[in-house]
Specification:
This protein is α/β, with parallel strands linked by helices. It has 16 helices and 13 strands. Helix 4 links the parallel strand 4 and strand 5. Helix 1 packs across helix 7, helix 1 crosses helix 16 and helix 4 runs parallel beside helix 5. The longest helix has 19 residues. It is globular.
């Protein structure tokens, strides 16, 4: 039996981990035994029993309940907590996702205990070292034994950094997830009816990245753009608690009167909103890809993106946080056309990740 400890800290990571967990359950030989550890990095009320039921994953065996505070303090506490679990569980592999502080802490803890690390979403680069996520990605990749890359671009990024050993192009587990839950959400979610929305007749927006929320003029620019767009078409904005707090601190609530604000939504509701939107405006890497998967034009309110394939395909537009640029991109979004490409694989990334781990274990 091959013991895997999966470390996650935010809702998007649980969603990605669901694809791997499902592949483990479906594997015929019962080779893998998975234990789930949640650092608690992002406290989300929607991560209730309903959330785990929707994703068909078990609740974590460990929850460190570490959230808030400065990056160093948070990562240090996680490093201590994860190390203790690793010593107790003695896994054969540690599985990490993406670019959070939880990702970084797990990579560090495992490397110091000489436990091999498999990094899903390896090789992504925004080339903006001011982003804490970029720092986390680079360090996690350097410490990982297996680098499980979602795209050819991510493989090329690692090659440019001199990293070629242990690199595998597996595709994007989020594509696996989108295919699995696309139809399920249409059957089980009534979010359009609850919000009084019609298919293809509204805009879905998300905003949570520190580069936008922590810089007042950027947050103001995004709020201004959403307010202008909401004059012509309904805008739905599920608000991260931190974003809601900063909007209040900058006294921007009055500008969003025409925008429908919601709390963070259950997973299937969010999938339903994404695939039925007229346009998606976001600063989220995951939502950019989901827009691409569902064939919905996307406007990314950032200066760069690690998911360059969505831009190169002509389906995603980078605008930064300048309100006029965002509004202009929205007004011309009907001209965006999705090209027939499969830059994120064919929907079997989870199985390829497990195959790579098994082969690496057998080669020891």
């Amino acid at each position: 039996m091959l013991k895997i400890l999966t470390v996650v800290g935010a809702r998007p990571q649980f969603i990605k981990a669901a694809a791997i967990s499902r592949a483990i359950r479906n594997s015929q030989d019962n080779i893998f035994e998975e234990t789930l550890l949640h650092t608690g990095q992002h406290h989300d009320e929607n991560m209730s029993s309903v959330f785990f039921d929707e994703l068909k994953i078990t609740t974590p065996k460990y929850n460190l309940e570490i959230s808030g505070g400065l990056h160093g303090a948070m990562t240090g506490k996680m490093l201590d907590g994860i190390e203790k679990v690793l010593i107790a569980e003695k896994p054969d592999w540690v599985l990490i996702y993406g670019d959070t502080n939880s990702t970084l802490a797990a990579a560090l803890a495992a490397a110091k205990l000489h436990i091999p690390v498999a990094h899903i979403e390896a090789g992504l680069r925004s080339f903006n070292m001011r982003m804490p996520e970029e720092v986390n990605r680079i360090v996690a990749d350097r410490l990982s034994t297996l680098l499980l890359c979602p795209t050819k671009t991510s493989v090329d990024n690692l090659r440019a950094e001199g990293k070629m050993k242990g690199v595998h192009l597996v595709g994007d587990v989020m594509y696996d997830v989108s295919l699995y839950y696309r139809d399920l959400s249409r059957r089980q979610s009534d979010i359009l009816e609850r919000l009084g929305l019609a298919e293809g007749q509204y805009v879905l927006a998300t905003c949570h990245r520190a580069e936008n929320t922590d810089v007042s003029h950027r947050l103001r620019g995004i709020v201004s753009a959403l307010a202008k767009i909401a004059k012509d078409v309904p805008v739905i904005l599920p608000l991260h608690p931190r974003t809601r707090k900063l909007i209040a601190e900058h006294e921007l609530e009055s500008e969003l009167k025409a925008v429908t604000l919601t709390d963070p939504l259950p997973f299937l509701d969010m999938v339903r909103l994404e695939q039925s939107a007229k346009v998606i405006l976001t600063d989220s890497g995951g939502v950019q890809k989901e827009a691409f998967f569902y064939g919905v034009p996307c406007i990314t309110m950032r200066d760069e993106t690690e998911w360059t394939e969505t831009v190169n395909s002509g389906w995603n537009t980078l605008t930064g946080a300048e309100p006029d640029a965002i509004v202009r991109a929205f007004q011309s979004s009907d001209s965006l056309r999705k090209l027939t490409t499969e830059p994120y694989g064919t929907g079997n990334a989870a199985e390829l990740c497990l195959k790579a781990i098994l082969q690496a274990q057998q080669a020891k």
